Amino acid sequence: MEYILISCLLLSSAFDIRKQKIPNAITFPSIIAFILIHGYYDGFSGILFSISGMAIAFGTMFIPYAIGVMGAGDVKLMMSVGACLGPNGALAAFLFTSIAGGIYALIVMMLHKNALRSFFKRFIAWYAVALGSRRLETFPENNKADMPMLCYGLAITAGTLTTMALYQYHPDLLILNLLGRMS
């Protein structure tokens, strides 16, 4: 089952890099396959395991999607991860995906220094106004053409592969024990 997930992740990353879109033709069949495979091996409890992993993944990714930080394909890819790895695996994958996404964003911003400068100028101005007025206003929008595009499918792939490797080779790590077993 892990090979199906790895294939899905790598294929999704390739599409995300090329087209900035993760196709439903990858995410939906993988979600269904993982639910069916867990159901076949573990019966109804396997189906619940898979669906609860999907729900955790959806819950962790919905707010970033709702505020426009990431696309629906990213959410569905993470739901596929949750359907495969279950609730604890989805939570661990989200944690490591967030770390990978932050590192990825910093690297992209360093490569696009003008966008980074523009962002920090707007942030400092916004922060000064918020402090001076003692009101928290929404962060001002910027021309999206100035900002580099992030392919978050790469971060999901990196975070999920990290999660899988850590569970496989270092299952005694404290963070993994706090999150629980994947299966």
Write a short abstract of this structure:
By secondary structure, this protein is mostly helical.
Please, could you describe this protein's structure?
- The chain has helices at 2-19, 24-66, 72-111, 113-133, 152-169, 174-179.
- With 183 residues, it is mainly alpha-helical.
- It is elongated.
Which parts are unreliable, with pLDDT below 50 for 5 consecutive residues or more? none
Radius of gyration: 18 Å
Distance between the termini: 12 Å
Structural class: mainly alpha
Main beta sheet: none
Element layout with pairings:
Elements: H1 2-19, H2 24-66, H3 72-111, H4 113-133, H5 152-169, H6 174-179
Helix pairs in contact: 1-3, 1-5, 2-3, 3-5
Task: Jot down its keywords.
single chain; 183 residues; mainly alpha
